[in-house]
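Response to reviewer comment R2.3. The reviewers asked that we include at least one raw input/output pair. We reproduce the pair for Putative membrane protein here without editing.
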Amino acid sequence: MLLIQNIRLSRILRNTWHIDLIMIASCTAAYFVREYLIAHHFSIPSIIPTVLGTAIAFFIGFNNNQAYDRWWEARKIWGALVNDSRSFARALINYVDEDDESVKRMVCRHIAFLYALKANLRGTVDEIYTKYLTEADLKEIAKHNNTHNAILNIQSRDLQKLSKSNVIDGFRFIEINEMLTRFSDSMGMSERIKNTIFPTTYSYLTKVFIWLFVVTFTLVISQDAGPAAIFLGWLIGFVFVSTQINGMSLVNPFENNSAGVPLNQITRTIEINLLQMLEEDEIPEPVKPINNEYVL
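Raw output as returned:
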């Protein structure tokens, strides 16, 4: 997630330089086609790029709006995980006084759940969660394809054991179990966002229309601007392409890039909070911003 208010132009150019080169080549080709092939036969009506530009603006606006909705929903889900995680640990620590070992085991297991979920959403191999699990937990989890769901299942079983041993009463059992249900809901909503592909036709057609607009705009403007039409065509195209790329960078909010939801930071923050609530001595350092620009 970006932390800075202003983005350097050099950073934008680093992300778009290959497309910029293609646009310049396209504008150059369009200029020479118009200059040497069609200039003396007919002229391109200016209404064509005008209509195309208006249509593309609607396409890009819609795509970016939907992409931001996906990103914001993902951020709200993990914001809820932060709140629920603290409440879960606080309830266990303060409601289960007679079984401190079980409390510590369940709180640490929840940290493992978060790391396992994060690794799944980002499609990475992250074994950090294993240090918060017992050997018995690891053996049971190995039988499941969905690691984080298996961890929740173990949590529910241990909570049931606490209830049967009368360590917690029925009301507190229901309250803590409700938190486990919310963890499952957040897990499912995160997986839904990850597994639901943004409609391919939306982004594909937008790209096609942008290239068509850049070419037709260059053809029209070259009638009056001459060779400068190459630069003007690239400049207008750069605005549309940059805006479209900006929106598409939010389509997959769990990707490990500067535009994604900062899962590393959020997970580490929860980890620190919960370990401090357990009064542990070894507390990891918070995740630091990269180049003071963004955090992962």
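The CA atoms of residues 20 and 238 lie 7 Å apart. The mean pLDDT is 85. Further pairs are available on request from the corresponding author.
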